[in-house]
Design goal:
single chain, 72 residues, mainly beta, Ubiquitin-like (UB roll), 5-stranded mixed sheet
């Protein structure tokens, strides 16, 4: 795929290049995180996990993903 079909986004402070039609669900899958154990923020707004397939990213979007880990 050529460069014009790619966008730059920031995930947890690191810039990455992804396909132009990349959703938040695609980011979670790429990072291999269990959706039930994460909280997602897009451009400083909490994302409802029911909508992650419908939210497509744009150049410059900032995604923060927090993974919950149990312990005692």
């Amino acid at each position: 795929m050529n460069k014009k079909n790619k966008i730059k986004i920031i995930v947890n402070g690191k810039q990455i290049m992804v396909n132009a039609k990349f959703s938040i669900k695609n980011v979670i899958d790429k990072l291999k995180m269990p959706i039930s154990k994460v909280a997602i923020e897009l451009n400083r707004e909490i994302v409802n996990k029911k909508n992650i397939n419908k939210i497509f990213l744009k150049t410059g979007d900032k995604v923060e993903i927090v993974h919950f880990i149990g312990g005692g």
